[in-house]
Amino acid sequence: MAGGGGDAVRTLLRAANAILQQRRYRTALAVLKGFRNGAVYGAKIRAPHALVMTFLFKSGSLREKLKSIAQATYTHSRNLAYFVFTYKGLMALQSRLQGKKIPFHSFFAACIGGWLVFGENNPINSQIIMYLLSRILFGLSRLAVEKGYIPQPKQDPFPLVAALVWGTVLWLFEYHRQTLQPSLQSSMTYLYDDSNVWHDISDFLIYNKRTDNK
Questions:
Q1: What whole-number distance in Å separates Cα of residue 11 and Cα of residue 176?
Q2: Which candidate among 13, 26, 58, 121 keeps its CA 20 to 30 Å from the CA of 191?
Q3: In whole angstroms, what is the distance from residue 187 CA to residue 177 CA?
């Protein structure tokens, strides 16, 4: 019986590998693998981030913290998988309908995917959109230089950008805190507010906050 089961598995694997080598299925299979890669990548980058942020800044029981980590990881993984699936599917559809691939296809497919998958305003989606926005601004700036729309800077502009970014975010934190994303507020509260409070060496050097009623 064990040998028969092994033969069945090997036969199944050979059949699956044969399908994977068929060019006529390549487009559909690429969409499916995109779904797989989106799910895996979303879990890999969200799980450690959620683990650190939850245990650093969130209160509650261990069960509640683990549930929060699992929920954040699942949401990020699911959304990224859905988006990649939608994007690649729409790209394939447009290419098939028009007989070729053009730059607008990418923009349109991503817009539809972004609307459908990331359109809900929640903490996970908000973080992802802000992450992408910062990269877009840098990318568009470099593209504008490459295309000649703005002149090539004579000096590296990064120090000025760094100064303006930090100056703006700390001004917002100190005077308009409610406008910042909650996880950024938590990080900055830990860095700049909590460092103003201590009672003895325990919560000055070892812990951030006292855990007893001294």
A1: 64
A2: 121
A3: 12
Half-sphere exposure of 181 (CA within 13 A, CB side): 14
**Alpha-carbon span 57 to 64, nearest angstrom:** 13
- Any idea what the Cα angle at residue 140 is, between residues 154 and 176, rounded to 5°? 95
Helix (H, G, I), strand (E, B) or coil at 22: coil
Global pTM reads 0.81
**pLDDT (mean) for 172-189:** 92
Pairwise CA distance, residues 178 & 99, whole Å: 49
Q: What is the pLDDT of residues 9-25, one digit of tens each?
A: 998 898 989 988 998 89
How confident is the model over 43-95, as pLDDT tens digits? 999 999 999 988 888 889 999 999 999 999 999 999 999 999 999 999 999 99
Taking the C-alpha atoms of residue 67 and residue 73, their distance in angstroms, rounded to an integer, is 10
- Taken in order 146, 151, 152, 156, the sign of the CA dihedral is negative
* Sole residue written with tokens 């700036």: 141
pLDDT at 4 (0 to 100):
63
Q: In whole angstroms, give the CA distance from residue 171 to residue 104.
A: 39
Q: CA 51, 214, 196, 207: dihedral to nearest 10 degrees?
A: -30
Contact 135, 113 (CB under 8 A): no
Residues 20-29: contacts with CB under 8 Å, at least 24 apart? 27/92, 27/96, 28/92
